[in-house]
């Protein structure tokens, strides 16, 4: 069960590496490589998106080598909407900014638009989707509010040094928080019954549940929800960024974003109606 540790490790690597890239970008300005992204996409008839291991956003089938995931499905829908072909380009989360700046890819979906990242690449204004800190709780443990976990007899598993670790430490002072070297060990402890619940990002917990089929993924109140977006190159002409902004808004407001997420969960043998969604409205209700 390496999917969660890969997610956490690549996220940390990306944050560490983007600072240097952001400083370089601020000195050099927008990359001259393929400066007019939208024009290039129209000329070639191809939209190149970065794909990197991180289920449910991107998943590479080890048998076929084919990429799937929510990011791929959204990319395919946008490519269809603008009349071009989607081309997945394998990269890593840590290298995605460099891949954007060099022109290797046109967009990297499911990147959070932090201030640090905004100094290196550009982002549409509209969110792509939302995710929240959630809980994979053992059967019979109902977590409507974070306070339901804030008890001395509740054992909470977290991956050491992650944002959910820091937040759970502040939010749940009375709970027994057990820290593990990585997220894989955290999942293994939950599977073995050594902890009662795991705190992590809800979409990744949903994939964990699809593998172990124990417990349930819940979103405690008050909801800690965050938007995510897509990184694109900084350009003098923001036509491609603005096109994605319009596409994101249309997909989100029409319900297609949630529908594509649900479509992917079905490939994991899950009933999407029984799992938390990826819209702010669904997560906060």
TrEMBL record:
It comes from the Bacteria. Residues 1-35 form the signal peptide. Coiled coil: none annotated. Keywords: Signal. Residues 46-268 form the Solute-binding protein family 3/N-terminal domain. The keyword Signal applies. The keyword Ribonucleoprotein does not apply. Gene3D superfamilies: Periplasmic binding protein-like II. PANTHER family: ARGININE-BINDING EXTRACELLULAR PROTEIN ARTP (PTHR35936:SF17), MEMBRANE-BOUND LYTIC MUREIN TRANSGLYCOSYLASE F (PTHR35936). This is ABC transporter glutamine-binding protein GlnH. It comes from Paracidovorax wautersii.
